[in-house]
Amino acid sequence: MMRSAVRVLFFVLALYAGVATGAWAAPQRIVSLDLCTDWMLARYADRAQVRALSPLHRQYPVAWIGSHWPVHDGTLEQLVALKPDLVMAGEYNAPLLRARLLALGVRVEVLPLPKSLADIHTYERRVLALLGKSESLASVEPSAVHHPSPRPRLLLLGPNGVGTGRGTMEHDILVRAGWDNDVQGQGYVQLDLERIVAHAPDAVLWAAPSSRALANRFAEHPVLKRAIPPSRWLTTDYWRWQCPGPWTWDLIRQLQQWRG
Description:
With 260 residues, this protein is α/β, with parallel strands linked by helices. 38% of the residues lie in helices and 13% in strands. It contains eleven helices and ten strands. It has a four-stranded parallel β-sheet, sandwiched between helices. It has a four-stranded parallel β-sheet with strand order 7-5-9-10, covered by helices on one side.
C-alpha cells in the first residue's frame, strides 16, 4: 500500500515538473479533422509535425496552403493507421469520429471557434501551446482607430441575398474597422432589395465565393448595381470569413484602409 502511494506521489510530482518546466515533447504526429484546424496547422505547425489534414482542405482549397500537405480520407481505419499523438478538431465537426478515437485512447483536442475578436487570442495561444510553440509567434492585432460619427454604413452581403447583422463576429469586424453595419437586425437576415435601393449603404462588401451560381444572382440584380456604384463594391478573400483566426486581423486592416 505504501509503495503504491509512493508511486502515485512520484507520478504527480513528475507531472507537475513537466508542466511547470515545459519539458513535454511537442507532438510529432498531428492529424486534423476540421477545416479551421487545417488552416491553423498550416500556419503554425512544422510540416514534419503533421501526419494529415482533413479532406475538407481539398474540398475548400486556399492558395496559401500548398499541395504538399498530406490529407487523410476521414475514415477511422486510416486515422488509426496514422498513429497520431494528437488529433485536433473544431467543436462542431466529426463528433462520432472523435468519440471513437477517444475510446481507443487517442488524444483528441477540441478547439471551440472564437465567438468574438477577444477569443481569437485565446484560440491562437491554445493552438501554439498544443504545438509546443512560443506565444511570441502569435499574430499582432491592429490598433484601434477612432473615427468621428456618423460612421459610413457597410453592407456585408452574402449568397442568396443574406446580409450579416448584429451579434455576429462579422459585425464586430466591421465596427472595429471603423464602419457601421447597414443591417440593423440580429444575426443573418434576408435582405429586401427595395429597402436597400431606397436607403443605399455607403458601400457593399461582397463576402461570397466568386461563381455564377444561382446563390449569387441577388448581388447581380441590375437595380442594385444602379443604386450602388461600382466604386462602392468592395471585395475580400472569401476564405478569411470562413474561420476566425489570425487572418481576421488582415481583414480589419483592409477594411480600415477602405474606410480611410
